[in-house]
């Protein structure tokens, strides 16, 4: 009887989980294992680039790759996981309901930003969390050129000074000049609850962020939290009011709600606790990867972050290990010792760091080249070539 691996989600982690599982099954052809991936569309959405313009173009097709590697794709959305029956219930793109049994389930359903945590944010704030919402933001920014010039029109408030907030904020000066004209007086304000710009990062990285922000004219309101958002702008908890027609929400990222259907330990972001094989604690037949997994990267107390850097390798290990458990192959313990960051800083350039202590190794144009190499080449899917794709899908292969 054929065994079934079901993967939920076609993001970075889901795509690589499918390829890695298919690779191991292909190496053990005497074993009958099918790999099925369920997602709303057979495309990889390049989420790390959603702060850029032309966001609708930031996708890559996956169906040719799946066809070449023997992965079955089902267009739809998983609605329910019944772990006791080893079954998922899903709805196709026509709204029809289906059920699918699994022998191994890989949760790769991603994350979403939570705008409901502050009054008015869900209604009045934009985000760049998903392609559709990032496209709404892009259309809004473009439409501002048709409105009368005012301080509110020319002001953008970015709520949150993490990586997404910083990349969006530092991209905006050039974007707004394109929209309003070179001589327009614009204001970009980052609201950050920490005591300084980039508070959660190393001192060396903070210094670069501060310098780039100053040169680009990006303002920071530190030690500040948003009380509410409305049609006229933002009110901070200390009573300050920032008038703006554009408020962008980048904080409060949570694992996909499907994780709540699995009765297993989760962290405050909703990520499922996994062991070193990436099995969900208490469920040997369920694996979690990418943004839904709380996975230790090493033995020094570091855990994977909600980034494509970690999602890619997590996916490879999860797919490999799910297949290995059905093929009587020894699993590979997940390890991701090396950690780098490459933060885009708009027209100023970028900054590249190495290590969990974020040692700055390159800045400005040099780092910008590294950033573009990563986001425009390295993280894209492999070609629809079975041999080449399977070589890269090996969890132990260098990802270059």
Structural overview:
It is a single chain. The protein is α/β, with parallel strands linked by helices and 400 residues long. It has 2 domains: 3-112 and 253-337, FAD/NAD(P)-binding domain (3-Layer(bba) Sandwich); 115-249, FAD/NAD(P)-binding domain (3-Layer(bba) Sandwich). The chain has 9 helices and 23 strands. It has helices at 12-27, 63-69, 121-124, 131-143, 163-180, 203-216, 308-327, 364-378, 386-393; strands spanning 3-8, 33-39, 43-45, 59-61, 72-82, 87-92, 97-101, 104-107, 111-113, 155-159, 187-191, 218-221, 226-230, 233-236, 241-243, 246-249, 253-255, 272-273, 286-288, 293-294, 340-344, 350-354, 359-363. It has a 7-stranded mixed β-sheet with strand order 7-6-5-2-1-8-19. A 4-stranded parallel β-sheet has the order 12-11-10-16. Strands 13-14-15 form a 3-stranded antiparallel β-sheet. Strand 21 and strand 22 form a beta hairpin. 45% of the residues are buried. The mean pLDDT is 97.
Question: What does the secondary structure layout of this molecule look like, with pairings?
Answer:
Elements: E1 3-8, H1 12-27, E2 33-39, E3 43-45, E4 59-61, H2 63-69, E5 72-82, E6 87-92, E7 97-101, E8 104-107, E9 111-113, H3 121-124, H4 131-143, E10 155-159, H5 163-180, E11 187-191, H6 203-216, E12 218-221, E13 226-230, E14 233-236, E15 241-243, E16 246-249, E17 253-255, E18 272-273, E19 286-288, E20 293-294, H7 308-327, E21 340-344, E22 350-354, E23 359-363, H8 364-378, H9 386-393
Parallel strand pairs: 1-2, 1-8, 2-5, 8-19, 10-11, 10-16, 11-12, 18-20
Antiparallel strand pairs: 3-4, 5-6, 6-7, 9-17, 13-14, 14-15, 21-22, 22-23
């Amino acid at each position: 009887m054929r065994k079934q691996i079901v993967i939920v989600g076609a993001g970075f982690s889901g795509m690589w989980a499918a390829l890695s599982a298919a690779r191991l099954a292909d190496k053990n052809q005497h074993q009958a294992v099918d790999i099925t991936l369920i997602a709303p569309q057979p495309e990889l959405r390049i989420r790390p680039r959603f702060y850029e313009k032309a966001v609708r173009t930031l996708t890559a097709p996956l169906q040719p790759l799946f066809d070449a590697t023997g992965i079955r794709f089902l267009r739809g959305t998983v609605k329910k996981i019944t772990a006791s029956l080893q079954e998922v219930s899903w709805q196709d793109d026509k709204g029809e309901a289906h059920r699918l049994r699994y022998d191994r389930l890989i949760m790769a359903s991603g994350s979403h930003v939570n705008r409901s945590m502050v009054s008015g944010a869900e209604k009045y704030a934009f985000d760049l969390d998903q392609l559709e919402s990032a496209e709404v933001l892009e259309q809004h920014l473009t439409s501002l050129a048709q409105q009368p010039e005012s301080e509110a029109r020319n002001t953008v408030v970015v709520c949150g000074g993490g990586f997404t907030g910083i990349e969006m904020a530092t991209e905006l000066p050039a974007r707004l000049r394109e929209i309003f004209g070179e001589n327009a007086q614009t204001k970009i304000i980052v609201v950050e609850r920490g005591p300084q710009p980039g508070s959660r990062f190393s001192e060396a990285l903070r210094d670069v962020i501060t310098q780039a922000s100053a040169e680009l004219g990006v303002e920071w309101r530190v030690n500040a939290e948003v009380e509410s958002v409305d049609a006229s702008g933002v009110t901070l908890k200390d009573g300050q009011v920032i008038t703006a027609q554009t408020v962008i929400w980048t904080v409060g990222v949570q694992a996909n709600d499907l994780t709540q259907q699995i009765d297993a330990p989760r962290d405050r972001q909703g990520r499922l606790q996994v062991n070193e094989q990436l099995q969900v604690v208490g469920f040997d037949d369920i694996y979690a990867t990418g943004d839904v997994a709380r996975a230790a990267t090493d033995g020094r107390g570091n855990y994977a972050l909600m980034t494509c850097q970690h999602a890619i390798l997590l996916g490879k290990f999860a797919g490999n290990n799910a297949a290995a458990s059905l093929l009587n192959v020894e699993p590979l313990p997940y390890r991701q010792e090396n950690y780098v960051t490459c933060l885009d800083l708009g027209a100023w350039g970028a900054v590249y760091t190495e290590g969990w202590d974020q040692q700055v190794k390159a800045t400005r144009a040099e780092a910008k080249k590294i950033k573009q190499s990563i986001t425009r080449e390295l993280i894209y899917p492999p070609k629809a070539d079975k041999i080449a794709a399977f070589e890269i899908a090996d969890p132990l292969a260098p990802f270059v």
